Amino acid sequence: MSLPKIAFWIQILIALVLGLCFGITLNPEFGLVSSESIKPYLVWFKLPGDVFLNLLQMIMIPLVIVSIALGVSSLKNLKDLWSLGSKTLLYFIFTTIVSVSIGILLTTTTKPGLQIQTKIQNQTSESSDTSTLEKKEKEESIPEIIANIIPKNIVNVWSKQQMLSIVFLGMILGVFFLTSRESGTALKAFCHSLESFCLWVVALAMKLAPLAVLGLMSYAMVQIGFSLVFGLFTYIVTVLGGLFLILVFYSLMILFFTRENPLRFLSQIREIPILGFSTSSSSSVLPYSLKVAKEKLKLKETVSDFVLPLGATINMDGTALYQAVATVFLSQVYQIELSTVDLFLLVGTVTAASIGTAATPGVGLVILSSILYTFHIPVEGIAILFGVDRFLDMCRTSVNLTGDLSCAYIMNHIWKEENK
User: Fold this and answer.
1) Pick from 286, 292, 309: which is nearest to 397 by CA?
2) 130-152 tens-digit pLDDT
3) Of 78, 54, 57, whose CA–CA distance to 175 is shortest?
4) From 23, 172, 197, 284, which residue has the greatest number of CB atoms within 10 Å?
5) DSSP code string of 207-260
6) What is the average pLDDT across 154-162?
7) In order of start, what are the domains of the chain with their CATH numbers?
8) Closest CA to 307 of 415, 191, 419, 158
């Protein structure tokens, strides 16, 4: 008698728990092994995860381009493109503003920055390596971001994975298909074949997902400093509480617009937040998000192929909340009072900064540094957050992915209602 097949999401969850336990056990602070003895093996923990992520990232750019192009081309006319695009963009901006507001409200209420111990601040400032931030490119202004959306060199865009430019390329190609239906037939057929190949690679990568999650979680847990986690406990709880409230907000939005049970929606996408938690990269999970949107949520390709790649580029609600919480938290640590005007300015600054933020691990800290500079908060304060950022990055990536799918779900309902 054959053993019953374990559901994919259960496999992922088991791998997540095993990775947590394995990583915590091997963490030098746990006392079983020293940091010197475990260090040579860390790269092997990451290997399955690196293979998994490389497979997804290998086809991410072509999949995003052809998905957007085919999604746009399936519209009736340019008027439909404007209708779907404007509604989606307004939804993204609205949810980002709500997320930032939640973060500010929670942090000004709980005041976690006033509870941090001075010795932890000093210890972290001395031990953390902030050189990573210094190596990053200078942050672009909003006008520069807008100008750079139109790529000078397509090959350069491909190699640097500039997501806004990639989305633009997909939309231009889709508009070409939409307005030149006969002359674009052969190229459109190629895009369909390329999309099928990309989705086949996604299915192949998913076979490695449980092992990848196990390895990535073990690697992350071995590196986390638990003494620092306990020292920043109130800060961590504030961020996690805000992320939970965002999920509640998404559920209310789904209930309001679709009149459907949001728990059913969350159940159908359950693998996505887990994969996002393990990889800390919205863009890496995007190919599987597209697959889930079409196969499980039964969304129209017109909507999912347009909304999800766009969302992975400009819709970062979890990251926006984190940046708001971190900014107010560090202002409290350094006893810098933010006025009501400053807080309103913070909402606008974080909302604008979230547009074009790369959906890759760790980039949130780079964006945060520019926000801190705007409000004259010492940038070196980021060192306090380094030790717990990896864990919080994993959590906010899960929320970012859920936000993209909830938007696609709502836009799909609105689209069907308008095109009955």
Assistant:
1) 286
2) 444 444 444 556 677 677 778 77
3) 78
4) 284
5) TTHHHHHHHHHHHHHHH--HHHHHHTHHHHHHHHHHHHHHHHHHHHHHHHHH-S
6) 71
7) 79-151+224-418 (1.10.3860.10)
8) 415
